Amino acid sequence: xxxxxxxxxxxxxxxxxxxxxxxxxxxxxxxxxxxxxxxxxxxxxxxxxxxxxxxxxxxxxxxxxxxxxxxxxxxxxxxxxxxxxxxxxxxxxxxxxxxxxxxxxxxxxxxxxxxxxxxxxxxxxxxxxxxxxxxxxxxxxxxxxxxxxxxxxxxxxxxxxxxxxxxxxxxxxxxxxxxxxxxxxxxxxxxxxxxxxxxxxxxxxxxxxxxxxxxxxxxxxxxxxxxxxxxxxxxxxxxxxxxxxxxxxxxxxxxxxxxxxxxxxxxxxxxxxxxxxxxxxxxxxxxxxxxxxxxxxxxxxxxxxxxxxxxxxxxxxxxxxxxxxxxxxxxxxxxxxxxxxxxxxxxxxxxxxxxxxxxxxxxxxxxxxxxxxxxxxxxxxxxxxxxxxxxxxxxxxxxxxxxxxxxxxxxxxxxxxxxxxxxxxxxxxxxxxxxxxxxxxxxxxx
Length: 446
Prior knowledge:
- There is one protein chain.
- This protein is an alpha/beta fold.
- It has 3 domains: 2-46; 55-229, P-loop containing nucleotide triphosphate hydrolases (Rossmann fold); 264-438, 2-Layer Sandwich (Nucleotidyltransferase, domain 5), CATH 3.30.420.
- Helices cover 38% and strands 17% of the residues.
- The strands form 2 sheets. The chain has an 8-stranded mixed β-sheet with strand order 3-4-5-2-6-7-1-8, sandwiched between helices.
């Protein structure tokens, strides 16, 4: 009986139906395992910040900086950058006592902690820290602790000490100087205590001071740098509504709209607009050449400016930079053909016939005019600034470095050579103020 039973059992357990059931079970287990492995792989990729971040969002390597100042437009990814940097420094045991400062405790909690790009969102679920609202503290798995503070109550920062502080939307605070002083006094733990500031800029004196501080690592960016992660409809609306406004210059392009007493230009004179069509009377490319090229040399100012049929002047592009002659010569000739310009205008007081030789060596067909300064810089610049006051000059888009330079230039007080401003002045003078302003435009073939 036992033998017969064993045979039956054997045949039953090894029947075709049973084998198929087992194979089906194995297939399902394998499928479930592959799904789980893929889920873990996707999760790992999702939380791999170094692979997902743009270069300007990654913690600056090395250097002797104390404050990382991120001035960027809305939607740039400032909050994500701040949160991911905090996560990285905690996970690598470079930070254990962290201060998180929003304009208020409510904003610190809602944006920096609970926000879609806040601290709780950037950690994988199994590593996610615990936030205790009653204590205003976040406890991390490795023992690090972050404490929340409101930026409008800087006195609360008297006493606490940190090795890392993250301040969000700093330019909105009521007393940024007091708060920053308290933060600096509390940054005294660890080998290299640091401060991260993420903000859309406003004309706050402390922001300007930090921008010039050698202990500051400055990162700048616009809303459109993060276009891949923003809704196309949002980007289209922002461009259509705000791209050509002062508000857009500040909130989208992260311009610091400062004013300087005694400056020929101020921010209210800079207007943004693009012409409705491509009917240009004349387009010129003006150069203010640097006579040397090294790390501390002046920049070569290169401006593309056009006079439109509507009677207004449009500053189209700023191609300036600290460049060797062959490179700025190439930039000029490429822009000449790209814009179908009427001529290249260059100051020869400093560089003699250098510009003509460089440009003509690259392309002998470029139309060229040399100009020589017979009046002082201020006398040349004043009528151009006056055209801005009359509303006759527009910038086609925010031109950060040019606008900063012209608004910072104070006659007889600014020591550094304003190369971009000089090129701008030569271009607009040639289009609107010189005898040749009514010259016939160059005829370009189709």
